[in-house]
Amino acid sequence: MSSVKSLEALKVLVADDDRDSCIHAALLLETLGIHSDWVLTGKECVEKISGACREGADYDVCLVDWRMPDINGVEVTRRIREVSGPDTTIIIITTYDWSVIEQSARDAGANAFLSKPIFASSLYNTLLSVTGIGRAVEFSAPGMITRQMGMEGYHVLLAEDNDLNREIALELLKMAGITVDCARDGREAVDKFLTCRERYDLILMDVQMPVMDGYQATDAIRKSEHPRARTIPIVAMTANAFHEDVMRAYSAGMNGHIAKPIDQKVLYQVISETMAGQR
Q1: According to CATH, what is the number of the domain 141-276?
Q2: What's the rounded mean pLDDT across residues 29-41?
Q3: Where are the domains of the chain?
Q4: What's the rounded Cα separation, in Å, for the pair 214 and 222?
Q5: What is the pTM assigned to this prediction?
Q6: Beta bridge partners of residue 180, listed in sequence order
Q7: Contact criterion met (CB below 8 Å) for 34 and 4
Q8: What confidence tens digit (pLDDT) does each residue in 123-176 have?
Q9: What is the distance between the alpha carbons of residues 6 and 93, in angstroms, rounded to a whole number?
Q10: Rounded CA gap, 262 and 119, in Å?
Q11: DSSP letter at 261?
């Protein structure tokens, strides 16, 4: 690939038939200062690469899911190589054991492999390895902003039943220097809060969870005998950002609202503003 001096200068394309996985990867890339595009099929991926080549604006890196329904990742890799030659670095991403396709993928032109769910640290290290960019690029750079916002050292309880959404939120919180405990449903969130006494600074509460939803969990917390029952900040996480959703969160006793998929900047801003109101 052409010489690139920093991660921020990379142009990245993500190809995965799972929309949430695309959003997850794009958010992690954003935390590294990298702009990315994403597509949901192998065909779109090849077309996007071809179009960029014709315009002289080649992608530096392409993350390609191994198992896409229209064209598998190995074949997509082969077609990309026919179009772009060696200029685009190709990373195969998969939830499966890639050893069975490693040789054929490398023969097709793949440069590296990455397991899903993708974590920021593994993505960062893989990008540095395959691009040759020096480690002068500081992985904690996104955390510099959050430290200036005074969030490092917070202890947050994250209540989220969806595995991918939980991984995304967990990764973003950890990058901010925040310690995180997780609950997979509302009842578990209530139990953790009640048994951990003064441990948590804030609760991020998904509103749609099994056993006990976020509104019910918030009500149980607010009505409990815990010394911080009425003062612990609780921020709702919902798939909608309509006015009525925000109002329902406040009516349920919550202190703030974040729409999903979670945006890194919004997450940090809401946490910072919510905690500032507690001082």
Answers
A1: 3.40.50.2300
A2: 89
A3: 7-131, 141-276
A4: 12
A5: 0.61
A6: 156
A7: no
A8: 888 888 888 765 433 344 444 444 545 788 899 999 999 887 888 888 889 888
A9: 22
A10: 16
A11: S
